[in-house]
Structures are given as structure tokens and as C-alpha cells.
Amino acid sequence: MTYQCALCPYKAKHKGYLTKHMLIHKDPSEVKTYDCSFCSYKAKVKGSLTRHMLTHKDASEIV
Ligand SMILES: [Zn+2]
Ligand SMILES: [Zn+2]
């Protein structure tokens, strides 16, 4: 059993993969992302942004 993308030839063995894949066909503005307020970094997972923010924090506190 494979899950076929309706918009491109992509096929997935798991429904979860297809769901994730479908995000690339969505308008970027519709996809929820966590944006860094200090740079152009964007994360799809909040944990990734939290971890990324540490790089800014370290840089400012070391000074
Ligand atoms: Zn597709
Ligand atoms: Zn940043």
C-alpha cells in the first residue's frame, strides 16, 4: 500500500510521510513556522527555534 500525492509523482509508504510532503505544495504563508526575530531563521518545530535562539543569546551575553 502506498500513498500517492495528488499533486506530483511523490509516493509514500506511510500516510505521515505524505502528510508532511503535502506541506511543500501549500502556500508558504499557510504553513505555520516559528520565525526567529533576530534573523531570517525559520523552524517548523518550536523546539528547533528555541535551540536556535540560544545562538543569539550566547552572542549577546558573551559581550
Ligand atoms: Zn507532491
Ligand atoms: Zn536567528
UniProtKB/TrEMBL annotation:
Keyword Transcription regulation belongs to the record: no
Domain C2H2-type: 34-61
Keywords: Metal-binding, Zinc, Zinc-finger
UniProt KW Ion transport keyword: no
GO molecular function: zinc ion binding
Annotated SMART domains: ZnF_C2H2 (SM00355)
This protein's name: C2H2-type domain-containing protein
Native source species: Aromia moschata
